[in-house]
Amino acid sequence: MNVENALDILKDEGYKFTSKRRDIIQLFVEEDRYLTAKDLLLNMEPHYKGISFDTIYRNLHLFHELGILESTELNGEKHFRLKCNHEHHHHFICRNCGITKEIEHCPMEKINNELKHYMVEDHKFEIYGVCPTCQ
């Protein structure tokens, strides 16, 4: 996903293009990691005096709803990142800096054997730790 793809999704769904929305998406493209609303506020406040958490949260949830962002919860706080181009994937997530590494293997291949008589509708698998840079 890049800025143009995300803006096309907004436009196709009837949402207005704004410089704030473009800049939020651009930040996710540049950072390529999970970010919190606070991360966005700290980055955007110098450029948009008086921007509020409400504006940030509203846009984050809109982008998530439209499939532009994916989310996870770390330490009781919602974190967002650009949705990956891959359909099915999992992540290692650094608890310190939020950087992610895609994991190609899906553990469900093995787990499905243990759930033969159950109907699995969805799953989420994430590994948390500290990346080499933060160690």
TrEMBL record:
Cofactor requirements of the protein: Mn(2+); Fe(2+); Zn(2+)
Any one GO molecular function term: transcription cis-regulatory region binding
Cofactor mode of binding and number, as noted: Binds 1 Mn(2+) or Fe(2+) ion per subunit. Binds 1 zinc ion per subunit.
Cellular compartments annotated: Cytoplasm
Sites where the protein binds Fe cation: H88, E109, H123
Recorded superkingdom: Bacteria
GO CC aspect terms: cytoplasm
Main location: cytoplasm
Binding site for Zn(2+): C94, C97, C131, C134
Protein's GO biological process: negative regulation of DNA-templated transcription; regulation of secondary metabolite biosynthetic process
Keyword vocabulary terms for this entry: Cytoplasm, DNA-binding, Iron, Metal-binding, Repressor, Transcription, Transcription regulation, Zinc
Gene3D superfamilies, alphabetized: 3.30.1490.190, Winged helix-like DNA-binding domain superfamily/Winged helix DNA-binding domain
Similarity comment text for this entry: Belongs to the Fur family.
Name the record gives this protein: Fur family zinc uptake transcriptional regulator
